[in-house]
């Protein structure tokens, strides 16, 4: 996993020297936000997929937690490209992290510095086909925790569910919300296919509005199979023809079974969307090249919302 450098507050530092204080506020109270982004190998060299959208969401997440990111989106984009290039990647995972640093250790700690880092490393694509189990842990209640923010503290929910699934012999966990509706998996959005119709849980179920989820929806529309966002129940998973997951780290992944009930993996819809996704991220489909930011090309910053 270790690579050459990590970008920290404007400076590339050696991997082993990228340190934070043990009394950093985020370490004690989970006051951080993150993004997982990917650079893919294309015929024209490495390029970061939907970089602007990821960084805009990072800013939104920080605002929800009451933190101000001390770098604009275009500055973070340039730093991201610099870090990928400095580490010599052809393809990699990129972790953006914004957190409250060392200072006051009280709960509020509004005066603590906000620390920003960007790390990159090689990432292996998961094996094709995963086995899901429904977790006994429920998705965070969005009335208590802001599920619209991709924040570090609430990820304890996913950590517990993932550990439960792996210890039970499964690959991944499905999280239901307090009302029993399907929300998402521990680090991926979920899609259900039945009789050719594709659907995915709504954000109101506690699911993060994923950038890869949005990508799949757009690809599906272009393939003539629009996606519906709706309430999804556990029984919908059992009665599905296909189920698949998507996320930045995983891509589009078919589900082999849910709670021991076998599924086609991959089914025809999943296979078509996975192929379209790979063509888009590797720059093979010209319709989606605007989603790719070349690593060594000059960056043109777009307007902020």
TrEMBL record:
Species of provenance: Nonomuraea indica
Family: Belongs to the class-IV pyridoxal-phosphate-dependent aminotransferase family.
Annotated gene: ilvE
Keyword Signal: no
Keywords: Amino-acid biosynthesis, Aminotransferase, Branched-chain amino acid biosynthesis, Pyridoxal phosphate, Transferase
Catalysed reactions listed for this entry: L-leucine + 2-oxoglutarate = 4-methyl-2-oxopentanoate + L-glutamate; L-valine + 2-oxoglutarate = 3-methyl-2-oxobutanoate + L-glutamate; L-isoleucine + 2-oxoglutarate = (S)-3-methyl-2-oxopentanoate + L-glutamate
Keyword Transferase attributed: yes
Descriptive protein name: Branched-chain-amino-acid aminotransferase
Cofactor: pyridoxal 5'-phosphate
Entries under Pfam families matching the protein: Aminotran_4
Documented EC number(s): 2.6.1.42
InterPro entries membership: Aminotrans_IV, Aminotransferase-like, B_amino_transI, BCAT-like_C, BCAT-like_N, Class-IV_PLP-Dep_Aminotrnsfr
One MF annotation (Gene Ontology) recorded for this entry: branched-chain-amino-acid transaminase activity
UniProt pathway: Amino-acid biosynthesis; L-isoleucine biosynthesis; L-isoleucine from 2-oxobutanoate: step 4/4; Amino-acid biosynthesis; L-leucine biosynthesis; L-leucine from 3-methyl-2-oxobutanoate: step 4/4; Amino-acid biosynthesis; L-valine biosynthesis; L-valine from pyruvate: step 4/4
Biological function: Acts on leucine, isoleucine and valine.
């Amino acid at each position: 996993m270790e690579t050459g450098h990590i970008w920290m507050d404007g400076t590339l530092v050696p991997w082993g020297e990228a340190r934070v204080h043990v009394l950093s506020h985020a370490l004690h109270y989970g006051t951080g936000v993150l993004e997982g982004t990917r650079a893919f190998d294309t015929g024209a060299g490495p390029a970061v997929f939907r970089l602007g959208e990821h960084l805009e969401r990072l800013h939104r997440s920080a605002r929800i937690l009451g933190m101000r990111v001390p770098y604009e989106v275009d500055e973070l984009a340039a730093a991201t490209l610099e870090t990928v290039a400095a580490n010599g990647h052809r393809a990699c995972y990129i972790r953006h992290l914004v957190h409250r640093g060392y200072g006051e250790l009280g709960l509020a700690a509004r005066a603590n510095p906000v620390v920003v880092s960007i790390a990159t490393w090689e990432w292996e694509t998961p094996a094709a086909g995963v086995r899901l189990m429904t977790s006994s842990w429920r998705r965070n209640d969005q009335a208590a925790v802001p599920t619209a923010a991709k924040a570090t503290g609430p990820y304890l929910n996913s950590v517990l569910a993932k550990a439960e699934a792996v210890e039970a012999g499964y690959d991944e966990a499905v999280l239901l919300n307090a009302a029993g509706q399907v929300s998402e998996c521990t680090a991926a959005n979920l899609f259900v296919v039945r009789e050719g119709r594709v659907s995915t849980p709504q954000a109101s179920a506690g699911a993060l509005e994923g950038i890869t989820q949005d990508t799949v929806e757009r690809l599906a529309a272009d393939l003539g199979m629009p996606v519906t966002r709706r309430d999804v129940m556990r029984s919908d998973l059992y009665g599905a023809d296909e189920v698949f997951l998507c996320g930045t780290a995983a891509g589009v992944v078919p589900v082999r079974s849910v709670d021991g009930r076998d599924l086609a993996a991959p089914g025809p819809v999943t296979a078509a969307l996975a192929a379209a996704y790979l063509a888009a991220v590797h720059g093979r489909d010209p319709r989606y090249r605007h989603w790719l930011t070349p690593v060594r090309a000059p960056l043109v910053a777009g307007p902020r919302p």
